[in-house]
Amino acid sequence: MTTDTRVGTITTRIPARMDRLPWARFHWMIIVGLGTVWILDGLEVTIVGSVAARLTEPGSGVHMSPSDIGTAAAIYVAGACLGALFFGQLTDRFGRKRLFILTLVVYVVATVATAFAFAPWYFFICRFVTGMGIGGEYAAINSAIDELIPARNRGRVDLAINGSYWVGSAGGALAALLLLNTSFFAQDLGWRLAFGLGGVLGLAIMIVRRHVPESPRWLFIHGREEEAERIVDGIEAEVRRETDQELEEPGQSITVRQRKAIPFREIAQVAIRHYPRRALLGFALFVGQAFLYNAVTFDLGTILSKYFDVASGAVPYYIVLFALGNFLGPLLLGRMFDTVGRKPMISGTYFISAALTVLLGVFLASEGLTSWTFITLTAVTFFFASAGASAAYLTVSEIFPMETRALAIAFFYAIGTAVGGISGPLIFGKMIESGVTGKVAIGFFVGAGIMAVGGIAELLFGVRAERSSLEAIAKPLTAHAVEEEAAPAAGAEAEGRPGRRAALEARRHAEEERARAAEHRAAVHELKPRADEGDLGALDRLRVEEALAQIAEWDAERLTEEATAHDERAHAEEAGNEPERAGARERARAADERARALRERAEALAAEHPEDAEAHAALAEAAVERARAREQRAMAAQTRGRAEHLEGAEAEIAEEQANTYDAWERMHTELALAHAARAERDEEAAAQHEREADVHRLSAESAADRMEAAQHRSAAETLAARAGTAEQAERERAAAAERERAARERDERIRTRILRRQRERRAGLHRFRPGPGERFYAPAMLGALGDWAPDAEIALDREVNTIAQALIEHGPTSRTRLAELVGARYWGPGRFRAALREAVHEGRAQPLARNQYGPPRATASTMEP
User: What is the reported pLDDT for 787?
Assistant: First the structure.
């Protein structure tokens, strides 16, 4: 039996939304929570190298020989390679966050367990598991960082984080000087504390890491686009609050076919078919840096002691200077990888480090170096080599599709370490044992040659990835699948505008859903007499058919909203100015959110457990609030566009009105976040977002008051410019009396309507029907309110009047055409249906046939010839 792992095909702008974010506190949290893994690795490797001699001494508490130390180092490297491959595949399958939490737990437990070592075999096991945790961290962390950091900053951030390995290395060397000092700690205690130090640092990182979100890119590809949207909405709201600036419009969208899981065989086939040159590039870069680094790093202390007579106790000071050069390289050169470009900088750092390595070998062979000049030249060499090595991790993370990102990092790390990381120390070790500086120099020449090969590979196969979206560098495999399926239909699609055709297709599916709903309603009518007679089986089927009819109706409305979104996007492409385009794009997103709300309502109705129903209902409310926020943003964009052509008081009024829309938009965004938090049962976060919403509501009311003040000033100026005649005053009094009469009639209609609705309070499944609730209000409709009538009722009365007037003007009209005439798509989910229902109840509209309405009978009779 086969399992279909496909979910659906979606179009999203989440990558563009993430890449256009300005730098904020959120990005620092990513660096602190995720980037510090390299410090752990540097600390781990350096401490082990520093305490190795102590472990072989009598009284250390663990009886190990020098050969056991070498075996432990090899086991640690093997664990890192296997851990990278094992956890890398799991990272691509189960998500970044699950794995970067799991691998850190593995590291912390294993390194703390090492502190309690009592025998070599136990030490070997702990070192292997520690290596697995660190190797898994490489895959999970680098993939998550690249997917959460904006494209314009990705290069410098990645290099700085990878270079932070040497901060841990320097810290480990200095800590070893203190912890191995028997004046402070016993011979069998200091080295144990050294391992415990890594565990304490890991626990501190865990606290920060808990707040790092899952990668939205991974979520939307794996069928969890709702969660991805919530995460990005929250990040955007946080960045807006922090920077106090409006975010720029996101760029291009991407269409992918979602998959719950992607088989490894499929990943390998597509990756090899599409990216063989990139695979060669990753292999060359990793082998080059792994050979040189492992050779020099493992043997640096031996070279200093054997050829420069440096005492073993002073070696850590040289290691600190070496580590400083390695850290400063990526930190200072990282910015140029985003500005100058990947190819010139990666190839340049590999070539420069190769040339300096040759120079280092020449000086070493001629014995023209002292210990300090040797370590200084070595630090300068690795200033460039470190930037190039860090760029190797950046490269393989960028140039392969998202579904393979973690596995690609793991694979090239493992193969680079296995090939270059093992051969390098072996070659150098043999040459150092000879005691001849000329042979050691040959080892440096070999390392230089392999680094130069990496530089040549970058020139031939390098990818210009600077400041580019990850999806533009390497499209997700799921996007390739969509393109391959769409290729046969490309010619037909080119005949018309894709947006308009998609809208027509969505409306076609909506009609099919309405037909399905009608069939379910027919079944309801057939079952009702039997259910009324007490047939329990018929009663159960009746309830099911009612639920299915409601779900089908909501699906039809959802598809209609999706069609509206396609129409608005097409309108945005055809718009002649930017404000109109921005408004159309926001209205499209509002329609998308309304469609999402309807989908969640259907899920709530179909949920098996009350907790799931409540969660889906909360998510529906969150989508409704996001739709309202988008509508407010659209109105703000259009109002500002209109303000550009106004002057004086009129321009001031328009600007204040736009500010009012902005404040309402922020309020709705916070309410959406509150509902989303409530869906996750986080009441504390929900309460915090609701408090923020109250602040924005007060800001909106304040802006509305300022707008009203500007209107009054404008009116005063207009009146002052006119001649104050008695006739003008009489007209003003008559107009005021007419307004008062209209307000009384409106209030009476609203009273009658509310009393009637209280008598007809909804029950059963009708509770889920969309429509205005008790707390509904229309922020765009401002003005004087009655002492008792809520905003929702005033808005509803205006909408009923609009429907009645449209029917009087146009005569008998279909429901769909009527909705277009009154502009119902801007009213919000369920509002047109509620207003039409009230118009029928009040006799201001009469149903002529199914989905056909006309003006009141008296009005209709006067229209006949």
Answer: 39
In terms of Cα–Cα distance, which of 837, 841, 865, 840 is closest to 855?
A: 840
Q: In this structure, which amino acid lies at residue 396? A: V
* Length of the chain, in residues: 865
Q: What residue type is assigned to position 825 of the chain?
A: R
Phi, psi (degrees; rounded to nearest 5) at 253:
-90, 170
For the stretch 185-213, pLDDT in tens is 776 777 788 778 777 877 877 777 777 88
Q: Show the beta-strand stretches assigned E in 322-395.
A: none
Average pLDDT in the chain? 76
Helix axes 190-209, 165-179, angle to 10 degrees: 150
Strands (DSSP E) found in 200-313:
254-259
Q: pLDDT digit string (tens) for 40-97?
A: 777 766 766 666 666 666 766 777 776 676 677 777 778 888 888 888 778 777 777 7
The kind and range of the H/E element at 669 are helix 648-679
Contact assessment for residue 410 and residue 81, using Cβ atoms and an 8 Å cutoff: no
Start-to-end CA span in the chain (Å): 70
Give DSSP secondary structure letters for 465-532.
Answer: -TT--HHHHS--HHHHHHHHHHGGGHHHHHTS-HHHHHHHHHHHHHHHHHHHHHHHHHHHHHHHHHHH
* Amino acid identity at 678: R
DSSP, res 23: P
pLDDT tens profile 28-45:
888 887 777 777 777 766
Domains of the chain: 28-223+258-479 (1.20.1250.20), 791-863 (1.10.10)
- The contacts of residue 216 (CB under 8 Å, 6+ apart) are 14, 18, 147, 228, 229, 231, 232
Give me the residues paired with residue 9 across strands.
257
* Amino acid letter, 675: H
Q: Comparing C-alpha atoms, which of 124, 175, 450, 436 is closest to residue 295? A: 450
Half-sphere exposure of 516 (CA within 13 A, CB side): 17
Phi, psi of 117 (to 5 degrees): -60, 140
Residue 144 pLDDT greater than 50, yes or no: yes
Amino acid letter for position 341: G
Distance CA 387, CA 785 (A): 66
Mean pLDDT of 97-105: 82
Poorest-pLDDT segment among 47-56, 344-353, 542-551 = 47-56
Q: What integer pLDDT is reported at residue 786 of this predicted model? A: 39
In angstroms, the Cα distances linking 554 to 159, 307, 600, 603, 831 are 50, 80, 10, 10, 14
Handedness of CA 427, 428, 430, 435 (dihedral sign): positive
Please state, as a whole number, how many other Cβ atoms lie within 10 Å of the Cβ of residue 499.
20
Buried b / exposed e along 609-638 (16+ C-beta atoms within 10 A)? eeeeeebbbbbbbbbbbbbbbbbbbbbbbb
SS3 for 676?
Answer: helix
Edge-first strand listing for the sheet containing 813-814: 813-814, 852-854, 846-849
User: How is 679-712 classified by DSSP, letter by letter?
Assistant: HTT-HHHHHHHHHHHHHHHHHHHHHHHHHHHHHH
Encoded tokens for 40: 């752990």
Give, for 6, the enclosing helix (H) or strand (E).
strand 6-12
Confidence of residue 758 (pLDDT cuts 50, 70, 90): low
Residue 467 backbone phi and psi in degrees, to 5? 60, 20
Q: How confident is the model at residue 756 (pLDDT cuts 50, 70, 90)?
A: confident
Q: What is the pLDDT of residues 247-287, one digit of tens each?
A: 777 766 777 766 665 665 655 665 567 788 888 888 888 88
86/82 Cα distance (integer angstroms):
6
Q: Read off φ and ψ for residue 771, nearest 5 degrees.
A: 165, 175
Residue 351's pLDDT band (boundaries 50, 70, 90)? very high
| DSSP 8-state secondary structure symbol assigned to residue 769 | S
User: How far from the centroid of its chain's Cα atoms is residue 573's Cα?
Assistant: 26
